[in-house]
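Sample intake — Mutator-like transposase domain-containing protein
Collected from: Araneus ventricosus
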Amino acid sequence: MGRYGKSGRLNLSARRYKKGGNLPNRKRRKEEVKPYEVEKDVPKQNEIKLEGRRIINLSHFIRSLQELDSHSAIGCCFKDMHVIKETRYGLNSSLTFKCKLCNTERSVWTCIPPASESCDTEQIHHKVNTDAVNGIVNIGCGYTNLNTFLTISDVPPISQSMYEKEHKVISEAWEKLACLEMEEAAMREKELAVECGDVDKSGIPLVTVIVDGSWAKRSYRTNYSSLSGAAAIIGARTGKLLYLGMRNKYCATCAWSVRLSIPPKQHKCFKNWSGNSTAMESDIIVEGFCQSLKMYGIKFNRVIGDGDSNVYKMILDARPYDDLLVEKIECKNHLLRNFCNKLQELARSSKHGHVGLRKRIANNVLKLRTGITKAILYRKMSKDALPLKITNLRSDILNCPFHYFGDHTRCDEYFCKTKQDNSKNEVPVMKSSGLLYKMLEIFQVLSDCAKSLLCDVSTNRVENLNSLIAKFLGGKRINYSLKDAYNTRCNISAVHFNKSLPNYTFHKSLYKYSPSSHTKKYEERRCKAREAAAKRRNHLKLKKRLFVSKISNTQDNSYGSKAEKPDLDLNQYSEKYQEFIKNLALDDNEIKNLEIETRAQRDSAV
């Protein structure tokens, strides 16, 4: 007979029961007989089930496992150990191993990088989380995108609080690095200005800059209600970013507190603007001009802009330099683009004259622009004095509509080879309809900027920066204006714009040591690819097609309203035929009225 005791042991006893024995005697005899104790099999400790994949630092993890192989002096090794616990901190995991023989417990982290004296222990443990957040921000995505990628890759996701904590770390690091890079670029601009002799009477270097702004949301030229905006000042000589400012109209923490009618918790508030979104650009650029002397010891004496805002007027009103009047140079590309847009609007408007003449204008917009471009190039290369160049270019611009519509009496010899041919002169007709005077108003606006056109400069460099900002904002399709995400992505754009190896530089700035060779090799490969593409474009001289119609006028048999349809059956065809014949039938009065209405049709201008 056997029974399990309280100690978990199986008690076996051999005895013989007699008939008529009572219960007390049985208990007494049981106590007298010494039981044979047999131990049960000790159940195995529950090993945890590790699911999915983990990110590991390969060299560190292998080295740690090798150390576990000699954890005891009694001869047990790594094969005698099993995982009893996993502690995850974001993407970094601590695996606790326990030996089955000596009960030794050791923990191994999966992603501890090589030790550095300048990095504390906590930062070392959390590096993989910081790098993951930094990587997802650098491709224009966010928290949801990161966890989507991790879960599809069968890697445990990170929490929202972990993401925000690491985002704060990289935000401060990118901001610091962006300031250092802009200061370095300003010092280089300062050196070049001194070398070229561009200094004022006090010896302060004078720098020409390119300015422009952007918003966090696309406006489509109608809806200027973005919650955030940025503006940049770029040195014309180096093409590097010198100043970048951001304005934010919203703070999620403050807005939530207002909604709940409670005081906001302690936080870093990024709300620094309460005016219109359209005024952000001018305010930032004026601020950059006012701080240039204090920050870098230079003055911005000329500004190249696109003319889309009141930036120049605000600069003049602010008077950042007491003894210097800032000069404005308009971007040639924006002047010509606005010129062409106004001509196309004139051609589309039914209020302005004959439809045939308006079609002639629409068909000649590109020729008009080309003619003005050739005139700019010719006058720029001439050896005349600048005032005479400006006067001649203005005359060429105002003569363009006469030249392209058949009147060559005012054409200069270099501009026109058919000066005596006035056989196709449409100018009188355009004058009679008033369309020519509407055109001349547009040409007059462009001729007033003849001096800027002769400078032949553009804001392409700052447009490149704006495209980088749009890239890091996910194409401006996601609202990153709630907290510090917008400022962070703008600072990342600044470093990428000024440095050829931005992520390599960021890693050294944050961790005080170089990353692995993968980062540097990849960024060097990208630099070479960009340089090769630039050389290829310059060599081939590819021409970009201007004014390509967004709506195709050709018939598409596969898609759209002109797509092929099956033939009508006989009944439907007969009904359509009878309906068409019925609509053509007129009575005597209708025929007489139609004849009277169309008597002078031959002499009509339509």
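Post-analysis note: The first strand starts at residue 2 and ends at 4.
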